[in-house]
Design brief:
Blueprint lengths: L1 H31 L16 H4 L7 H23 L17 H11 L4 H10 L5 H14 L4 H13 L3 H12 L6 H13 L3 H14 L3 H34 L6 H11 L7 E2 L5 E2 L7 E3 L4 E3 L10
Antiparallel strand pairs: 1-2, 3-4
Helix pairs in contact: 3-4, 4-5, 4-6, 5-6, 5-7, 6-7, 7-8, 8-9, 10-11, 11-12
């Protein structure tokens, strides 16, 4: 009995010693491990959709949904880490969302007819990697040749790249698909003459907003439309400031001083918002700032508009 007890006690002691050693060794390794560069802060995907396909016994759609939801959560975390107010929607490379394309590509590997990942990638990826955006959207067109909206998204990508001739070509191809709206043919024509105008941009984002298949694409289009309105407003205010300065040889003391001059340019100030303190406010509701030293209009620091 005593011998058996000594054996058991020795075994327990060895196990406890091993656990203690592992505990301290783990702490030592963690302290000695060099910091990883930002490019490796995300864990690599263990399995991609192309590796799964054919081995999920008819559950491809369910697995595609899993990849799709993970892509949304992944980008949501990236954006929340910097805050929407600090997000540059023109260039999101600083977020380093290197797993977004693999998630979306895997979702569409599992279900090539699953449209939302294509449309989401087409609206978000151009600000991260335009080549990936083109590759994903062209994949969508190859798998869904009768889906005219994918041509719309591809045209949008080329428009963002200012390749208006290519955008016109894509819109023209999309306009020939059964059920495509007149908008597609119209955009093909205007790309060649007015591709870089704000009016074209406004039409583009209104169409995306009306047909967005996910909340992120919808929010992106809404912010873009607010930005275009703000640019138009700032152009009008800048012109009115120039008129006021030429007539009075000084800059206005406040926005209220400028209102009569602005009303001459904009019928009764139509299109501009004024708060209770007589400040002009941007489309998001934040007051514009009057820089009296340079006599220019600027966005407020808390504005939702992209600061460029």
């Amino acid at each position: 009995m005593a011998s058996k007890f000594r054996t058991t006690a020795l075994s327990v002691l060895v196990i406890l010693s091993g656990l203690v050693a592992v505990f301290f060794l783990t702490g030592f390794v963690e302290r000695q491990r060099p910091p990883l560069p930002p490019n490796y802060e995300d864990e690599d995907m263990a399995l991609r959709g192309s590796q799964f396909r054919g081995f999920v016994f008819g559950a491809e759609g369910l697995v595609a949904d899993w990849y799709w939801m993970n892509s949304l959560q992944y980008m949501g975390k990236k954006i929340s880490s910097v805050g929407l107010e600090n997000l540059n929607i023109e260039d999101m490379r600083s977020l380093n969302p290197r797993l977004l394309y693999p998630y979306l590509n895997s979702a569409t590997d599992m279900d090539p007819q699953f449209i939302p990942p294509y449309s989401y990638g087409a609206t978000i990826l151009p600000a991260i990697d335009p080549e990936q955006a083109i590759a994903l959207t062209e994949k969508g067109i190859a798998n869904n040749p009768d889906h005219w909206r994918l041509y719309q998204y591809l045209g949008y990508i080329y428009w963002r790249l200012r390749n208006y001739d290519k955008a016109a070509e894509v819109y023209d191809k999309g306009s020939q698909i059964a059920g495509a709206p007149v908008f597609m043919k119209m955009m093909s024509a205007v790309m060649k003459t007015e591709g870089g105008s704000r009016d074209v941009a406004r039409q583009m984002y209104k169409q995306i907003l009306a047909e967005a298949e996910d909340e992120s694409s919808r929010q992106n289009a809404e912010i873009r439309l607010l930005e275009i309105d703000s640019l138009d407003e700032r152009d009008s205010i800048t012109a009115a400031l120039s008129d006021f300065r030429a007539s009075n040889n000084r800059c206005p003391a406040n926005w209220a001083d400028l209102l009569p001059t602005l009303q001459k340019r904009l019928r009764d100030g139509r299109g501009l918002r004024v708060d209770r303190a007589n400040n002009f406010v941007d489309p998001g509701g934040t007051p514009y700032l009057l820089d009296r030293q340079t006599c220019t209009v600027n966005l407020g620091p808390e504005s939702r508009m992209p600061h460029k």
